[in-house]
């Protein structure tokens, strides 16, 4: 008998290939879910999970609401951080249908590098904060530091539990990249590296926070704890790394293949730099194949000289002015003691959008 081989339709094959490439951050589709996860059977209703993540859901059901919150935070933070750039993170709004997934995040671009790093950092950050707030019964406050403080300062309060956040965050976000069948080895190495860069920035975002105590606000004693900076600070640090990201290639180095800088391969990859393998488009015009939505109708700043300027944002196409009525608080007065009253004032402002 002659053996027959089955040829997959192009659409199905494309979907399978995309799911292999982008599943590392497909869990961000959880930002769309309306399911309140409090039972193991709810795990099968969640979009974007690979098998190992679904298993983690079943064994850590309580953690899933925090992970859903983290997915929403990634989307919100990413879009705010890049609001002044041509690429404004619109593709972070990942649909469940992989066939509609935009190429700017599945081609190994610097945009993908940023999203992987931000996703990993945000997940661990959200879990660490949930421990502090008491939203998770599985963890509590972080440990009291061993360092001795100067007179007038003492350790207390509730530290963010970064250790637990990093442990569970990496277990969930890296689950897909550690599966055997999860795309090319080069992509896995790159995504794992960028995720670890995000967590490294998070580790460096631990600061000492203090609360004053004393008679009449004298602040004679300060109770202090270790806490994480806000996500917007961490995202801005990752944005700086995005702007200076290193393009890499996967080539033999000694006895095995490694990711090495494409143009400066005399040095190894640094642990604190974001990596990408594919160049990005300029994002000026709409191009579905490259994942660019273009900048037409984007608001720009006529007086700016930065990335949000009308010249850069509109890519030389020009811009159109329009007026908008804005209502603001005005003529505010402080009343003893202790409240403020304000009036509402209307004014007309001029805005500009790209042609």
From TrEMBL:
Coiled coil: none annotated. Keywords: Developmental protein, Disulfide bond, Extracellular matrix, Glycoprotein, Lipoprotein, Secreted, Signal, Wnt signaling pathway. PROSITE patterns: WNT1 (PS00246). It comes from the Eukaryota. It is found in: Secreted, Extracellular space, Extracellular matrix. GO terms for molecular function: cytokine activity; frizzled binding. Its main location: secreted. GO terms for cellular component: extracellular space. Gene3D superfamilies: 3.30.2460.20. One of its GO terms (biological process) is pharyngeal system development. PANTHER family: PROTEIN WNT-11, WNT RELATED. Belongs to the Wnt family. Ligand for members of the frizzled family of seven transmembrane receptors. This is Protein Wnt. It comes from Anabas testudineus (Climbing perch).
